[in-house]
Amino acid sequence: MVHAASGFRGTRAGAAEGFAPKNQPGNAVGDSLPRMRVSYWCSKGHETRPVFVKLPEDQIPVVWDCRRCGGTATRGQFQPEAPLEEPEDGYKSHLEYVKERRSSQDAEDVLAGALERLRAGGALPD
C-alpha cells in the first residue's frame, strides 16, 4: 500500500511548466522549447494544424494525415481533386463485379424469376 504522503509521485505527459522531476538541475525546471503550428490541407478541404518544435523548414514534414477523414494532407492550399474514374487501389464494388458477370437481360430474367417465386409463396401481393 502506498501512503498518501509518499514522495513517490509521477507526472502526467504534457505536464505544465515548473513540474519537472526534482532530481533535475535547477535550470531545467520550467524550460520549454519554442513551438510552431503548421497548416496541412487534405483534398476534402479539411485543415489539420499539428504543433511542432521550432524546426528548420526542410525538417517539417511535407505530408500529414488528415485528422477528420484520414486522407493525405499537404502544406499547400486546398485544391479539390478531380474525381477518379478507376480507383487507384483497383477496388471494385459488389455491383461492378455483378455487372461484369451478367448482362442487363440476365438481370431482368433473374429478377422476374425471384418475383414470381415470392408471389407464388404469398410473400408479395400481385
Walkthrough of the structure:
The chain has 126 residues and is of the alpha+beta class. Among the domains are: 33-77, RNA polymerase-binding protein A (Rubrerythrin, domain 2); 87-121, no CATH class. It is built from two helices and six strands, in the order ββββββαα. The chain has a four-stranded antiparallel beta sheet, with no helix packed on it. A hairpin with a 6-residue loop joins strand 5 and strand 6. The radius of gyration is 30 Å and the shape is rod-shaped. The mean pLDDT is 74.
Descriptive tags:
126 residues; alpha+beta; Rubrerythrin, domain 2; four-stranded antiparallel sheet; 20% helix
List the helices and strands and how they pair.
Layout: E1 35-37, E2 40-42, E3 47-48, E4 51-53, E5 63-65, E6 72-74, H1 94-101, H2 104-120
Order of helices and strands: EEEEEEHH
CATH homologous superfamily label of the domain at 33-77: RNA polymerase-binding protein A
User: What's the β-strand tally?
Assistant: 6
- Please state the second-level CATH architecture of the domain at 33-77: Single Sheet
Largest sheet: 4 strands, antiparallel
Query: How large is the share of residues in beta strands?
Result: 5-15%
Distance between the termini: 76 Å
Low-confidence sequence ranges: none
Helix content: 10-25%
CATH fold type of the domain at 33-77 = Rubrerythrin, domain 2
pLDDT averaged residue by residue: 74
For the record, the CATH class of the domain at 33-77 is Mainly Beta
Alpha-beta content class: alpha+beta
